[in-house]
Amino acid sequence: MKHDCHYHPGDPAKWHCGECQLHFCARCMPDANAKQRRGICPQCNKAMRYLGAATEVVPFWHRLGAFFRYPFHADPLLVIAICTLVPALAPRNLLGMLVWLLLALALMKYTYAVINRTAEGHLKPPPLAEAFSGSGFNIVILQILVFALMGGLVTAAGLLGGPLLLLLTLAFVVLALPASIMVLAMERSVGAAVNPLNLATLIARIGSPYFLLYGYLILLVLASGAAQDFALTHFSEWVSRPLAGFLNSTFTLMLFHMLGYLLFQYQEELGFAADYQDAVEPEDHHHRDRSQRFDADLDMNLKDGNYDRAQTLLLEQLKREPDNSLRIGQLYRLLAARNDIRSGSPQ
Ligand SMILES: [Zn+2]
Ligand SMILES: [Zn+2]
């Protein structure tokens, strides 16, 4: 849902007051704290809901090029290189197997970090350390469990309800697979990721763009398969195996970045708020001086036509700082506009 600021049409809303049913942009809320999601409504003084980037996110179908460029940054390329080249060079024994397994785990962990980070608004890939450090390796085991449960569900449907139910269940599982991966990445719960109600709700909230994404995912998988096939048939095994692995991993990162972006784009519908994280902070947010709040209040009152209130605000402010030339100028312009200037020579 796209909402503009009530006072600045064309500017995306960042805050919403449920009490006044008004949307405010960042300019109207210079004193709000977006990091902590705390903002007080300037009209009714009640806490407002932070909308994050929900109202300004570029839809995923407008940034397909960015999805293709995503893996081609230093960090993901290094992760992919380590995880596909080292196993190729490792000795073919138990130790080599262990190295292969550990690196496969690291790559999977990195892949799931891509979903989480993208959903939080990081449009640049996670750092290299994300693959090899800390906890979070259990996501791989959880994903295997989800696949096993889904396989079990399809088998059970076939045994209990015959071929028709088998096909219907299979169709649902295949269709809901991206939704399931998204839910697992965000909630880290096998139960939530296989709950059909949960998955159907997610798909329904996103609506038809889910199926558009699904089409793109199929195209990506096909392209990845064709590229790997080309590598395997045109190069010697020494080159083709790592190359195919490399292609597989880059396409997987694109795919997971897309899934994460779908969450980011539909954050409002899915019930969370996130904002673009990679942009450089334009100014020091700790330095929130009150004059910005005053300017925003004045602007709102003027736009609402509350000229008396605007005049009172300015007069009160001038009692506190009688030498503030900016406020004197504002008051003068307001009075002039209201045709309320007592000229020096009374009639
Ligand atoms: Zn505004
Ligand atoms: Zn309000």
List keywords for this structure.
347 residues; elongated; mainly alpha; 63% helix; three-stranded antiparallel sheet; 3 domains; binds zinc ion; 13 helices
How are the secondary structure elements laid out?
Layout (H helix, E strand, L loop, with lengths): L14 E3 L4 E3 L24 E2 L13 H6 L4 H16 L4 H26 L9 H4 L5 H50 L2 H5 L1 H11 L1 H27 L2 H29 L1 H4 L19 H15 L2 H14 L4 H13 L10
Antiparallel strand pairs: 1-2, 1-3
Helix pairs in contact: 2-3, 2-9, 3-5, 3-9, 5-7, 8-9, 11-12, 12-13
The structure holds zinc ion (ZN) (2 copies).
Helix content: 55-70%
What's the gyration radius in Å?
Answer: 28 Å
**Strand order in the sheet with the most strands:** 2-1-3
Bound molecules: zinc ion
Order of helices and strands: EEEHHHHHHHHHHHHH
For this entry, what is the oligomeric state of its chains?
A: single chain
Mean pLDDT over the residues: 88
Largest sheet: 3 strands, antiparallel
| Discrete helix count | 13
What is the terminal separation in angstroms?
Answer: 58 Å
Number of strands: 3
Number of domains: 3
Q: What fraction of the residues are assigned to beta strands by DSSP?
A: under 5%
What low-confidence regions span 5 or more consecutive residues with pLDDT below 50? none
Shape: elongated
- Sheet/helix structural class: mainly alpha
Can you describe this structure in just a few lines?
This protein has 347 residues and is mainly alpha-helical. It is 63% helix and 2% strand.
